[in-house]
Each structure stands twice: as C-alpha cells, then as structure tokens.
Amino acid sequence: MFNLVIFGGPGSGKGTQSEKLIDRYGLTHISTGEVLRGEIAAGTELGKIADSYISKGNLIPDDLMVSILAAKVDRLMPSSKGFIFDGFPRTIPQADALSEMLEKRGEKIHSVIGLEVPDDVLTARLIERGKVSGRDDDNADTIRKRLDVYHNTTSPLREYYIRDGRYRSIHGIGSIDEIFTRIVEKIEQ
Ligand code: ATP
Ligand code: MG
Q: Where do the annotations place ATP binding (predicted)?
C-alpha cells in the first residue's frame, strides 16, 4: 500500500487536493470531517456527540476519534491500494495511534503532505466557504477557535513529522492545479 497524510490548517485545501490525488493515484480517501458530518446528517447518536464539539470549533475526543478511524480502516483496507488520511491525525496521541494501527496491519505512512497557508488566507477562504457550504463551523467565531486549536494542538504534529523525515512542505497558496502540481512533484521525487 501507499499511504499519505494530508495535513494543514482548517481551509488549507486538504479535501480539494485529496480528490485530485485519488484521481491520479487511485487511493482511498478517509476524511474524518466528512465521516463526522455524515453521522450528523444521518442524525445518529455519534452524530449528536460530534456536533456538540464541531459546532464550537473543538476537536472530538481522541479515544472516540481513534475508534471511528480504526473501524473505517478495517472496513476499507481489503479493497484499497493505499489511503489518504485527511483531517487525521490532529493530535500527537492520534498520530501515535495511527502508526500503531498501521504497524499492526503491516503498513505505514509514507509521507505527510503539509499544505502551508497563513492564517489570514485561511480565514478569508473559510468565510467565503461559509457562504455556500452550509457548515455551521464556517462562521467568524468558530473559525477563530478552529485556528487556535490548530496552532495549539495540531501544529506540533508538523515538527513531529519533520523530525522523522516524512514531512513534505507544500506552498499552499495559488490555484488548485498549481498546488496539485507541487504535491505531485514532491510525491514523485
Ligand atoms: P479542510 O477545509 O482543510 O478540509 P477543515 O478543518 O475545514 O479542513 P474537517 O477536516 O472537515 O475541516 O474537520 C471539521 C471538524 O471535524 C473539526 O473542526 C473537528 O471538530 C472535527 N474533526 C475532524 N477530524 C478530527 C480529528 N482527527 N480529531 C478530532 N476532531 C476532528
Ligand atoms: Mg475537509
């Protein structure tokens, strides 16, 4: 298998670039945000719990998030030639759980694609997205909170993956195709 993590702040383009990577490399997309929004839309018990965190810009607790992810991985692994993890890991414990989970199954993360976008650009993109996304976390107050959570809790993972040599830094401003070209260049290096 060939497994990637796509990493970056809220609105950095993880979902958009994942779709293009799937087309190019035939990978399986696992977006934790999409999984959770699916549960919310279906009105499940899990969805209700998830909504109480997401709508405030907070992260879902690690143990819950890890068990959701493990179930997804197990279901999709037999038919997959590789995963793109989008929105996971978001904390150091999640990253440890992910390596452990993959190791047990004889797999690993090959590279972490880090989309580097400054906060002012992220904020502007999310405000724009909020006008059409219908996502109730794309509003000014929640966006500010999500950026705080990103800097305090998620961005230490950047150093974590830089230290172990798997981080691939991508300049995340430009057209969707320009950014995609940069990602493909890094992957094929
Ligand atoms: P992008 O626009 O780059 O795809 P995003 O931050 O807008 O990123 P999602 O990745 O879809 O959006 O996440 C939306 C919300 O779902 C998060 O703010 C968080 O509350 C919850 N969530 C998603 N993934 C995780 C995770 N790994 N751990 C905890 N909570 C998560
Ligand atoms: Mg997303």
A: 11-16, 129, 174
